[in-house]
Amino acid sequence: MLSMDEDALICDLAQTYGIVEYENYPARKIGVLAGGLPPEARIMKKIAGSVVTRDEMMTALIFDRLNWLCWSKTKDAQHGWNRPESIAKRLMDPPKKEVLHGSKDVESFMEWRKKMIEG
């Protein structure tokens, strides 16, 4: 857990157990406490590869169903128009962040620009 995201583990230990400096405790004790963190803890979500908890996902799915039921009673639904977007789908597959490029001087920017234009 420490090698995966030390900051997340520190936050979780502080929030759950009030432990701010985990280095002052025996490693075995910290390991036991870390293993007992709830699924909603930052580090547990990271280990599971999830950005949301099970409860958050269930809430999103319930919202999606209710939203679809309301939409299904409209004239748009009769024509198949303006179907509501799924919140749960966006939570499971968040939009990718755009990678930005920074340059320390004009020359390096011009080199990068030339590479981008030429492909």
Written overview of the protein:
It is flat and about 65 Å long. By secondary structure, it is mainly α. 5% of the residues are buried. It has 2 domains: 2-48, no CATH class; 52-119, no CATH class. The chain has helices spanning 2-17, 27-35, 42-48, 54-72, 75-79, 87-92, 106-118. The longest helix is centred in the middle third of the chain and has 19 residues, at 54-72.
Report on the biggest sheet. Answer: none
Count every helix, treating DSSP H or I runs of 4 or more residues as helices. 7
The rough form would be described as flat
**Proportion in helices:** 55-70%
Tell me the radius of gyration.
23 Å
Structural class: mainly alpha
**Weakly predicted, low-confidence segments:** none
Strand-and-helix sequence, N→C? HHHHHHH
Proportion of strand residues: under 5%
How many domain regions?
Answer: 2
Mean pLDDT comes to 91
Beta-strand segment tally? 0
Question: Alpha-carbon distance between the termini?
Answer: 40 Å
Structure, briefly:
The chain has helices at 2-17, 27-35, 42-48, 54-72, 75-79, 87-92, 106-118. The protein is mainly alpha-helical and 119 residues long.
Summarize the SSE layout with pairings:
Blueprint (H helix, E strand, L loop, with lengths): L1 H16 L9 H9 L6 H7 L5 H19 L2 H5 L7 H6 L13 H13 L1
